[in-house]
Predict the structure.
Amino acid sequence: MELLEIDANNFSDRSHVIDNVWTPLRPGEQMAYEGWTVDDAGEKVKHLYVATVTDLTKMVAGIRVLVLLEEDFQDDTLIEQEIAFRAQDNDGNVWHVGELTEAFDGEELIGAKLWYAGVPEGARAGIKLVADPKVGDPELSQGYAPPPVNWTDSGQVTEAGLTVTVPAGEFADVIAIDEHDQETEEGVFQTKYYAPNVGLVKIGFKGDDPNKEELFLTEVIELDETGMERARELALEIDGRGFGYAATTPAQRTED
């Protein structure tokens, strides 16, 4: 699988407006997923994942990216939070341009990993979803960051036309994308299911995945101004803690 080269010339000044039908990212929209995973002790534990589309943008690699806020909880305890950077090119492909992930033990911040296109040296952006995904499309890199970050995810469409039922409802014409971390054993995949005009509705796994994570969309929330302010402030806090941001501008609120 080849790594991809991102070219700022392929993006407009509205690259942060993401309306790809398979992963529309609408500022103020929050999607909650509930399920379970297996912890380091081999115990099955409750898992909550909350993804919020903020109204913040950044300039990364010469491209204005949209800032997503993602929070992971196990047994109601925050274990990880991150900001992720997405942009849509002129052909409608949605790129994953980088992320800053923070790990927690209780309320204590115990570590962080940062990468974005070009930082650290050799890091590459990747494509999260193409404009018109189809079964038979080649496997695509979703980004790459060398050690010590070790981010090597790829994805490939494996099924289409599915009907998926989760707590948030029944969704038709769903596609499934098998994601594989190149650092893990062959045959181990995290499968993500995307519904048109909605986005991610379910996460499952294939193979001998030690985490055995399964998540199901439970609700889609339109945040009020109080909720937006909370998401904005948290994303800006994470952004502010990001060491190595010399090559990017701070995140800022974008009205459109």
The two ends are 36 Å apart (CA to CA). Residues 225-241 form the longest helix (17 residues). The chain has a mean pLDDT of 94. The first strand starts at residue 29 and ends at 38.
